[in-house]
Write a structure and sequence with these properties.
The protein is of the alpha/beta class. It contains eight helices and ten strands. The chain is globular, with a radius of gyration of 18 Å.
């Protein structure tokens, strides 16, 4: 399910720190009867309020694990994570989480799937309904409020999942390769939509992706990770306009140079777009 968080209180509204996510000296190991795997080693990263940060790296480097640790779904072996100034010790209520699959309930229409978030969190029904209508309009789903998931394209299903993740107006949205299963054209369209929604909502976004183009187009910074055990190899500032027209951005010398640098750092692996 896209968001099932229950947890600790956050900083009071209006008193939230300028840094939304603080990760310090984070290490994560998994143990089983057969072996012990180190997923992440000595990861430190701060994300500013309202910032869009993209994370790229080879498969298995711990990108998704890092998101789950920030969300409080996986405990670190050592180090510290703070969200909105509070140490993360369990699942976080004040986040939205979008996974690779939309995970919509097949028997519920678009609006009902979005409002599932309100039911899970016991939100005020009238306020949640108004917010759902705003998000439906924002994401171009007007007219499809009653459509069932099988009647929607993959891109539209992901928009529904995004609306559900944003229904409770979370200050932080974590996204784990949400457009990876979409065709290239639909993925481009969703990149444009996500960039617009981020600018209009001001939500702090951390996106994990295998696509270098996606990471650079969307991010204000791009974090490049090493192969497992995952470390932060380098963090790039993205010197592109705040408002990014897709075609012009992709063909700009700044975009092309940064994409080349990141691809070279990753070893020009065929996994990275």
């Amino acid at each position: 399910m896209t968001e099932t968080m229950t947890t600790q209180p956050s900083a009071a509204a209006g008193q939230r720190p300028a840094t939304t996510i603080d990760i310090k000296d984070l290490t994560c190991r998994f143990s089983s009867k057969r072996k012990r795997t180190t997923a992440l080693v000595d990861v430190s990263l701060s994300v500013r309020a309202g910032e869009f940060v993209s994370i790229v790296g080879p498969s298995g480097c711990g990108k998704s694990t890092l998101l789950k640790i920030v969300a409080g779904l996986v405990p670190p072996s050592s180090g510290q994570v703070k969200l909105l100034g509070n140490e993360v010790n369990g699942p976080q209520r004040e986040i939205g989480f979008a996974f690779q699959r939309a995970a919509l309930l097949e028997w519920r229409g678009v609006r009902a799937n979005i409002l599932l978030q309100a039911e899970m969190r016991n939100l005020d029904k009238r306020a949640a309904a108004a917010r759902a209508d705003q998000l439906i309009e924002l994401t171009g789903l007007t007219g499809f409020e009653s459509a069932l998931p099988h009647e929607l394209s993959g891109g539209m299903q992901q928009r529904v999942a995004l609306c559900r993740a944003l229904l409770h107006e979370p200050p932080v949205l974590l996204m784990d390769e949400p457009f990876g299963a979409l065709d290239a054209l639909t993925r481009e369209h969703m990149n444009v939509e996500l960039h617009r929604i981020w600018r209009e909502t001001g939500t702090t976004v951390v996106l994990v992706t295998h696509s270098i183009a996606e990471a650079v187009y969307l991010g204000q910074r791009v974090v490049v990770m090493t192969p497992r055990p995952g470390r932060i190899e380098r963090v790039y500032d993205v010197d592109l306009p705040a408002v990014r027209e897709y075609g012009a951005t992709m063909s700009s010398p700044t975009f092309e140079q940064l994409a080349r640098e990141i691809r070279a750092l990753l070893g020009a692996s065929g996994q990275h777009g």
